[in-house]
Design brief:
Elements (H helix, E strand, L loop, with lengths): L1 H13 L1 E5 L3 E5 L3 E5 L6 E7 L1 E5 L5 E5 L2 E5 L5 E4 L6 E4 L11 E4 L7 E12 L3 E2 L8 E4 L4 H14 L8 H23 L5 H5 L3 H12 L7 H7 L4 H12 L3 H17 L7 H7 L5 H12 L3 H9 L4
Parallel strand pairs: 2-10, 3-9
Antiparallel strand pairs: 1-11, 2-11, 3-8, 4-7, 4-11, 5-6, 5-8, 7-13, 11-12
Amino acid sequence: MLDTAKMCLDRLLSNLDVDVEPFAMCLVSDGRRLRLPGPPEVLLHFGLRGRGFVLGPDDAPHPFSTDSFAIIPKGAKHAIETGNPVENEENLPAPCQGGILPRLVAGPSVEPSLVVACGTLKVQYGEALGLFDHLHEVLHVDMSDTPAVGAALKGILEEQSQTEVKPGAKAMTAVLMSQCLVQMFRRLSHEGTDQIPWLGALSDPRLAAALDLILEDPAADHTVESLAGAASMSRSAFAERFAATFYRTPMSLVNHVRMQRAAHLLQKGDALSIDEVADRVGFSSRSHFSAAFKKHTGSTHADFRDRSTGDTP
């Protein structure tokens, strides 16, 4: 069972789908605070120089320094400060957009005490499971003892600071960020954390076995009973433990993974018919699939495919 947990983690980390938006630079002077709005997606802060604190929505301080990550949940208002008595606070009313490495400044921009790279990102397993889903508080990870992480982040900033976009820049950025995230998840897995539900589940080899089945073959005829059997747990104990870890029922996660995989297949255009997509994600009935997909995404599979392939009038 322990091997199953390791295999599940390996599968997750080997199939990361990473999308990184262009970074901004936050420059915070001594005695200043930069207050930021809730990001539209999960936001990553990476310390390039200095030390201070990231304040969560409740203003609880999280220590932050060079070569540290601070992961901010989607929609969470937060702030960055140096930690010394705050004399002045700057507010950014809306997310920063446009430009090459735009600068967000609190205080004089010359020799700021704290320099932070900030960028939103989406991280999924095979287009199916958002790895930061249900993150509810600021997650701080000190990576200062892993030089490869700092080197990869600096590589991303170099790619994004070019006045002329190089061929493959987006792919290079995704590869470099994947390296950083693999290192971070390795660290969190070793240390243990309850802030990321799926990672916490891997510390329980019983849940890891069930999660592995769902991710490996979401189209299979899964039931709560079959997943509980894979976890060597009673149905009621498994359902309760699963819901407490993932904030959803086992079959809700199965459906979520199926729908996300269906969306990925539909985005490929007309390579597969709707019936083939439905079959690949575990639906024998096209009408049942159509109803489930619309409930999950809010649109029909035809409209979704048209928008994804640019065929919308």
